[in-house]
Design brief:
The chain is mostly helical and about 100 residues long. About 70% of the residues lie in helices and about 0% in strands. Helix 1 (about 5-15) packs antiparallel against helix 2, helix 2 packs across helix 3 (about 50-60) and helix 2 runs antiparallel to helix 5 (about 75-100). The radius of gyration is 14 Å and the shape is globular.
Length: about 100
Amino acid sequence: MSICSAWNKLGTSLSIASGNHWENSYHPVQPFQVSGILFLGQDLEDFSTPEHAFRSSLLAVLGNWDWQVLEEIGHVKAAFWLWVFSIVLSLISLNMLLAA
């Protein structure tokens, strides 16, 4: 995947995200949707489109990820994305808990 096609995917993702249901709200999974498309989308079908990336990110929030599929792109790459994803969303959840 070239840099140009990665930027095109990012532009498509951001235009979809700023369209209908993302216009007035922000979801913590949205940055991981974009990073999943750019980082994992070239190798995994689950992250190839914005809709698939959003679904896969939400399933990862619920703890439903398939490590064998993620590991196909490389152990370090998959582990890095999953660890950062888990840590950031855990910190957001902790922040909401402490704010309540």
